[in-house]
Design a protein that fits this description.
The complex is a heterodimer of chains A (134) and B (472).
Chain A: E1 2-6, E2 12-18, H1 21-37, E3 46-53, H2 57-75, E4 77-87, E5 90-99, E6 111-112, E7 118-122, E8 125-133
Antiparallel strand pairs in A: 1-2, 2-8, 3-5, 4-5, 6-8, 7-8
Chain B: E1 6-9, E2 12-15, E3 25-28, H1 31-35, H2 39-49, E4 54-65, E5 72-79, E6 84-85, E7 97-106, H3 107-111, H4 114-124, H5 139-148, H6 150-156, H7 161-165, H8 183-189, E8 202-211, H9 214-220, E9 226-233, H10 236-254, E10 267-268, H11 272-306, E11 314-319, E12 321-330, E13 333-342, E14 345-346, E15 365-368, E16 376-380, H12 383-388, E17 392-393, H13 403-409, H14 412-421, E18 425-428, H15 431-436, H16 445-455, E19 459-471
Helix pairs in contact in B: 4-11, 5-6, 5-11, 8-10, 10-11
Classes of the chains: A alpha+beta (134), B alpha+beta (472).
Chain lengths: 134, 472
Amino acid sequence: MTVRFVSHTADVQFIVRASTKAKLFEECARAFSLCVAEGKRISPCEKRTIVLSGDDDLSLLYRFMDELIFFVDGERFLVSNVHATLAKNELRATCEGIRLTHSKGFRHVKAATYAEMYLKKQKGGWEARVVLDV
Amino acid sequence: MKETLVRVADHVYELPISGTMHVPGRIFASENLLASIEDPCIKQVANVASLPGIVEYSFAMPDIHQGYGFPIGGVAAFDSERGIISPGGVGYDINCGVRILTTKITSKEFKSKRITLLNALYKAIPSGLGESSEFKLSEKDLHGVLEKGVGWAVARGYASANDAEKTEDGGCIEGADASKVSQKARGRGRNQLGTLGSGNHFLEIQEVETIFDRVTARVFGLHEGTIVVMIHCGSRGLGHQTASDYILAMEKEYGFERLPDRELACAPLRSKLGKDYCAAMAAAANFAFVNRQIISYHVRNVFKQFFPREAMPLLYDIAHNIAKFETHVVEGKKRELCVHRKGATRSLGPGRKEIPSCYRSQGCPIFLPGSMGTHSYILAGTKTAELISFGSAAHGAGRVLSRSYAIKHLRMPDVKKQLARHDVILKTGSERGALEEAPAVYKNIDEVAHVSDALGLGKLVARVKPLAVVKG
């Protein structure tokens, strides 16, 4: 499983790889967390649950990232680890993370985007690309 | 795709119709600026030209760079009957915009108190990720902000009638409907009113260094050697969530298979969903106007501690991520159009009814912020812009280098030294964030401003120089 940040002119772009589609969603959450925390170590102490459905893989991934962004802005909760399961187009995710008591030194993510987004099966696993509007 | 561009006049390049494009693209740029425009950006100009009901051209302003769906610096007008509205053509940060407060304080007077004043501003104005405001809005107040805009702030004593008058659309966009903004969006915005945010948003104290047009500058209240305060931010999480909500709703209702880019999800302007988005966008835009107004309220209170007699009147507040219903002349006939401006500013020439009466003889004020180490420009709207770009101009410098490039190749001590050489003091909560916004990652604002003036997209009025910067 890997997370790789790739250069993007205005915003933040990452490519993740994982052995299964569910783990791919977990890795996307980890990439999001790395992006927001800007490398700071997070020791999770709270949990949230997400249940989402989408019309296809990309809308599910978009909605998942959107939910993680809402956690930060609406509930001041930053995810660090996710355990995800997928059944058809439904995602169930248990999210561990921290409550943000201050925000200095954390990056604000405005939105998930469909820009250049993909999610595909590859030899030996799955790969996805996400661009976040910061 | 750059090789397909045809130079049709000085600083004007045309992208001929090909593939699914309904109209040509038109890019306003000098040769230098064109060199920094990459193919994905030009592809986005072509993609916008493929949307139903687009009129005349898919435009790119001189500060164009790659965005989502639309390029940043993209302008497109759609027929109000047969056209569409696209949240991707407005941007996630609905009514991201700029305002300027003027003062009679000289730069010398300001500099004598600069550090303590900057620290006080930084303390008074929340900035950074999801930073909360002292304004914990009740549902009733949030409703008032969304539907009444700056009128809500006037009623609560956070704004004057003059502030409302000198805000685009009087600080309240017609048709705003709070019920079209989701609970999720309200949840993100509720505690963020009066906050600056992060990324490229900033508050800057600047010196009016050069006046190009004395008459207009006097009308705008600009005087050489005095300081002004420029505020750049938007609708915070409330606007971002509104954009995401409607992108998902539109692709579900109308699909995306025929679109060249899924981020261009759209709905017919006359459809229920199209009208709902217009009402939600207007509400989020009102939130952004009030956000900048509350920040102004804090700024004035801080300045009062140091300069008790300063009123700090608002010069103007303009949106640069918005869609507006406007009347323009197309092929000799007046038409009602929905003009999408994403990273583009309205440039209306003298006489237009949309301009506050005090500025109507000069054209609407336009602000082109540079980066934190470079000049910014103040222009006035023109009749030429109404003819050649549906009354639109650039919105700033436009990025040219990536955030990761900045982190990899630039160093904060060097950026600070560079700022010090230009006599600029920076206060930031995130050095990494500030590094990503270093002057080197932006296009040459002087060139953007002068190309805009040469084309007639705006008329140069004044150049301002940064003295102190707050970044989230």
